[in-house]
């Protein structure tokens, strides 16, 4: 294991590599059985996390689905929302940022306070972090469903190393180390 902070993309996906429906529904995910104390569970994961990162669509999903009906923002760690929009964050732990992840590295590392950094999604933002050499591992719980279209898990060519696998009820859980961009080879 490398030294802190580790940049971790921890997510769930359909078998065919989507994070969400084209209309951002997570119905296919939230209806699956999962053991909250089982393999690669969220509680163990979040204990090592000091700061989190997400794109605009993911932030909007949280506002519409987790913060509605007067519920508070569900995270107390610093959160960086990447967007080009001028928005007023819903909590004072949220920073609104734009541009290359590399330009935010120092701020992210400082905010994480020696702990790891969670790249929540989406997939293109996670890939931007990889391109900036700010992605160490990808942990995916694959649900037993295909959608054929939607928000992509990781829309780039990269080599990964499979480090660990496990089953958590309906999910196949896999931990990968990020190796690097995969060049195109002419056939
Ligand atoms: N399955 C899961 O466990 C899981 C995990 C995470 C997310 N999700 C879901 O998956 C979907 C992901 O949506 P998405 O693919 O659209 O990705 P996203 O990263 O959530 O949002 C993409 C948007 O973020 C902004 N953005 C990205 N990079 C930026 C940068 N470098 N600088 C400034 N702004 C930047 C842009 O929005 P603007 O230019 O419009 O500001 C871009 O259109 C959401 O529905 C989310 O709820 C599911």
UniProtKB/TrEMBL annotation:
InterPro entries attached to this UniProt entry: DHFR-like_dom_sf, RibDG_C, Riboflavin_Biosynth_HTPR
Gene3D superfamilies: Dihydrofolate Reductase, subunit A
A biological-process GO annotation: riboflavin biosynthetic process
Domain Bacterial bifunctional deaminase-reductase C-terminal, first and last residues per copy: 11-156
A GO term for molecular function: 5-amino-6-(5-phosphoribosylamino)uracil reductase activity
Name of the protein: Dihydrofolate reductase family protein
Pfam name, any one: RibD_C
């Amino acid at each position: 294991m490398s030294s802190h902070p580790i940049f971790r993309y921890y997510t769930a996906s359909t078998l065919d590599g989507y994070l969400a429906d084209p209309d951002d529904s997570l119905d296919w995910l939230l209806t699956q059985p999962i053991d909250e104390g089982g393999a690669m569970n969220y509680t163990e994961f979040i204990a090592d996390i000091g700061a989190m990162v997400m794109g605009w669509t993911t932030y909007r999903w949280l506002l519409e689905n987790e913060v509605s009906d007067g519920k508070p923002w569900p995270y107390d760690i610093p959160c960086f929302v990447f967007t080009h929009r001028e928005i007023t964050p819903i909590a004072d732990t949220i920073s609104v940022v734009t541009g290359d992840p590399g330009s935010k590295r120092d701020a992210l590392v400082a905010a994480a306070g020696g702990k790891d950094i969670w790249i929540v999604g989406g997939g293109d933002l996670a890939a931007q972090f990889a391109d900036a050499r700010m992605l160490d591992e990808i942990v995916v719980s694959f649900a037993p469903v295909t959608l054929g279209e939607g928000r992509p898990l990781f829309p780039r060519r990269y080599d990964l190393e499979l480090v660990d696998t496990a089953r958590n009820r309906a999910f196949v859980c896999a931990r990968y180390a990020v190796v690097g961009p995969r060049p195109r080879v002419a056939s």
